[in-house]
Specification:
The chain has about 180 residues and is mainly α. The chain has two domains: about 80 residues, RNA polymerase sigma factor, region 2, helix turn helix motif (Rna Polymerase Sigma Factor, Chain: A, Orthogonal Bundle), CATH 1.10.1740; about 80 residues, Arc Repressor Mutant, subunit A. It is built from nine helices and no strands.
Amino acid sequence: MALSVLSPDATKLAQFEQIVMPHLNAAYNLARWLMRNEHDAEDVVQEAYLRAFRFFDGFQGGDGRGWLLAIVRNSCRTLLRQSGGRESAAEFDEQMHSARAPGSDPEERMLRQTGIDSVRHCIDGLPAEYREVIVLRELEEMSYKEIAEAASVPLGTVMSRLARARARLQDCLSLHSRRPGEVRA
């Protein structure tokens, strides 16, 4: 009986593929919201995966998603800092990033799209530190502890940022839900 022995590089690659690769969509989602540009997000994710693989030997086990998203977050901040802090205001392509409900009537689709556009606009208008915690908590469904580790901030800071981000989102969405010409009481 012959034993199949993997080389150290092959073992590292297999572990990397098992632990980190499943989180590609989460990495892109975070990068997209932080960079506000799909092409920059793709570049950041590619760079983050290269860094993650290069430093995979330093991975201490645990949550591969949190570890990867911390790298993505840091890569986004580095690129934004290098570009002079400019954040692109590129539009997010809803058709490319979500599936439509089959069989919806046109009016229902229009109302849903209007709501999605409002939420997207409001999230996009948040400061970066609020936007990242909202994306990690509400879209990626990470725990407060996971967000604290990924963002390298204390747990209390995560809770504070989330509370402030949610309040801003609620205010923004209430403004968007009013009809044109409607006066707020």
